[in-house]
Amino acid sequence: MEWSEFHRNKWKQATTFAWKNFTNPLVRRMFSFVTVLGKAALPKEKLQELSELVQDMKTTYSTAKICKYDSTQRRLPNGDYDYYADFDAEDNEIGCVPTLSLEPEVTQIMARSRDPEELRYVWRAWREAAGKPLRHKYIRFVQLANEAARLNGFEDAGAYWRSDYETDDLHKELQELWDVLRPLYEHLHAYVRKKLREKYGEKVVPRSGPIPAHLLGNMWAQTWTHTQDLTIPYPGRTSVDVTASLLRQGYMPLHMFRLAEEFFTSLGLDPMPLGFWQKSLIVKPTDREVVCHASAWDFCNGIDYRIKQCTRVTTEDLITIHHEMGHIQYDIQYRNQPFIFRDGANPGFHEAVGDVLALSASTPHHLQSIGLLENVDDSYETDINFLFTMALDKIAFLPFGYLVDLWRWEVFSGKTGELSLNRRWWELRLSLQGVSPPLPRDEDDFDPGAKFHIPANVPYIRYFISFIVQFQFHAELCKAAGHVGPLHHCDIYRSHKAGTLLRNVLSLGKSRPWTEALLILTSGKTSKLDVKPILEYFAPLIAWLKSQNRGEFVGWRVSEAIVQP
Length: 565
Ligand SMILES: C[C@H](NC(=O)O)C(=O)O
Ligand SMILES: [Zn+2]
Hints:
binds N-carboxyalanine; binds zinc ion; globular; two-stranded parallel sheet; mainly alpha; two-stranded antiparallel sheet; 6 strands; 21 helices
């Protein structure tokens, strides 16, 4: 019998019980999950079509390639690069052979190039190859995803996804959190814009307008860590970019994985099982195409867990390894729960675990203690440099982490129709993130499709929630570890007290609402998402940015965008 048939029969049995009147809260909770069938509620041929659509979109995305930038290519009379001349009527690049994949080649160009023309070419070519071809498939996908959601009693796929958070108005709660965090983001944005303007000039980077998205070191402008050579507050002082050290010391991906594992076991948490080391894929294979976006896999038998990552020897990938290993640790901690409860308390918790440990592992003193950083001084400048680097990741990300599913929820609800998919994407990117496209966009484009989670149909609000809740975890684990002093100096390494508290939360899986898990984490203090810990962590940087931004326009005028989308 096919899995969906088996699933459907179990579901039918479960729905025959008046489970909502059950007195046992755990059994009632189990039934509330088992009676949601998900996409298997679709008729067989539609389920088949939906699965094939997602597979096709993932394949297009993960095999997309672009051509090398060639500055001698066609130029307009004014000398500007004529990037329209390079694509034929079907928007395929002409006169070249696409050979560059997103990982590692294109990602590296976006991180390292300081040529706005090359960055603009690569930014566009990636969207021609990976986003645009998905537009019509995505429209059909939305119809089927909504049909499946309605068969499960939800008004649309967005409502189905939000139900994971077991709260009446998730959107409203998140908007309130963003309203408090937005000023911090605007100050970071203003400072980074000033430094980029000093580098590229006012013709390229506007004084009080949005930042052109191709200059921020990342294909989606979602993390700005690769601008730090241009933006670091005190150049020459300690910086936590340890890529050079990793390479100099001969680190290979396996050593980086062992380093991350050792942090988990130092807390008294579990090592990776033997099979993990035998079956994980940690470097990009040369004999076949794989989906290189890093991922963690639980094979639901209590022993088989794997990570798939096209690992490079960089600081960024060392952090990603901690992130992915956090998923595996969570999987291991709840493996004794009934099957239906083997999941994160909410998806944001699952994304937070690894990042919480990375908050300790990234501190200058921790990096020094494992020999990746030398002569760390305790100066104010080093402190600000460290906090700034962390903000380029954690604060820069917030509006992007919020807007991806704001866009998707509106598409699922029909508030954004088929004819305004790209326009609405750029409205959100401009209003929330303060970034603008490096060239005009229209409804032939499908820029959301150029971000993995859209073709792969992976919800994204979980990362916005993770970037808030991980600081709540960090604050409580630091307290358990007996840390005194500023929160951003805390390193829980080797604290079994912190490890035990973390285990107590993770081992619950989804057996209790995440609000109850938060009460356990905070020893009864709060059951809600709380931005106080992230604001406490970055407090010294906030003060510094405000002083640096005196005289600077904080925020952005959309009308001043160099290119109106
Ligand atoms: C933040 C998110 N992380 C992940 O997918 O693991 C991303 O990469 O866009
Ligand atoms: Zn993740």
